Structure formats: C-alpha cells, structure tokens
User: Fold this.
Amino acid sequence: MSRSVSIILTACMLVLTSVLFINCSGSGGGAAAGDNNGGGNNSAGALQSLTPLHGAWVQGNCVQLNPSLSTKNFYQIANVNNTTVSQNGGNLTYSGTVCAGAGTMISNTHIGQVVFNGTHDYVDSTYGARKFYYGTVTMVSGLVQEQIWALKTSNLLCVFSDDPSLINAEQVNTYLNAISNNDCFVKN
Assistant:
C-alpha cells in the first residue's frame, strides 16, 4: 500500500471515529455496561415500528482529505427484531473536494446494536411531523450509550446522546432544531 493511500485511510478512520463514536452532535451521555440511567426520557410513548430507520443513511458533512479526495460517513441500519436494529458504519470517498457524484465505500464496520424502548410523535409548527426514537446502543467496544434517533423529516435522521435535560418531546425538538442538517444522515 502506498504511503498516500495509507495516510488517506488513516484520515478516513479518524473522521469515522470522531463522528460515529464520539458524540458529535450531543453532550457526553456515555454509560457503563448495564447502566440504563443515561437519559431522562422516561416519558416516551410506546415503541413504534422501526421500519423508518432501516436502510442506508449518508451524512451531509463532507470532509476534504486532500486536494483531490473527500469523504462522508454512512450508517447501514438492519432489522434484528421488533425492538432492535444492527448498526454498521463507515466511509464513502469521492473524487474531488465536495463529495459530488457516487461515493466509493472504503470501510463498513459493525458498530453495535441499538435496543429501542419508546417513541414520540411530534409536530413542529415550522417543519411538520417528526418522530423520536429512544434507545440504548451497545457498541462492539462495550460502550453503552443512551441515544435519541430523531427523524427530522422522513428522509433525514439525526442521532445524538440522550441527555437528562431532554425530558420531553418539545425539548428534544428544540434541541433537534439547533442541529445542522449536515450533521444528520440522509436516507440513500
């Protein structure tokens, strides 16, 4: 492997690590294995179908790796059962600096499984219907984290740490409105 390819792959993995495993759009919120007290969303409604979460999702953010290469992160979400999804993630690379055209997958790694325990439907006065899923991700590394998977629209998914200050759907919606769409994932 050439030195430049090695540097590019290292940069891609750093991007993947910083976006997927470190909470890029939320506050800390990590919990020890077996600790289910990470979030404050005990008021979530009954869990609804996870089907809207299934499929390939590509993040809006584009990172320029060098003058002729750029990358985006992606998730691949697959059904396990009525409460659980399997989460893979990785990078797509693009010729050029703006992630235009079709990306080439250079990594696809199993991140872990997410067990969901509740859902909120919410109607934002400006943006319309939204759906918030509350769950616990157990990563292959052993890290356990309470998360909110928010469908900002039916084709725009934002994933962030559940935080004790987000105790109802209105607060989650306010937080979601502050997140850039580029930090979220578009259904592919």
Notes: The radius of gyration is 17 Å.
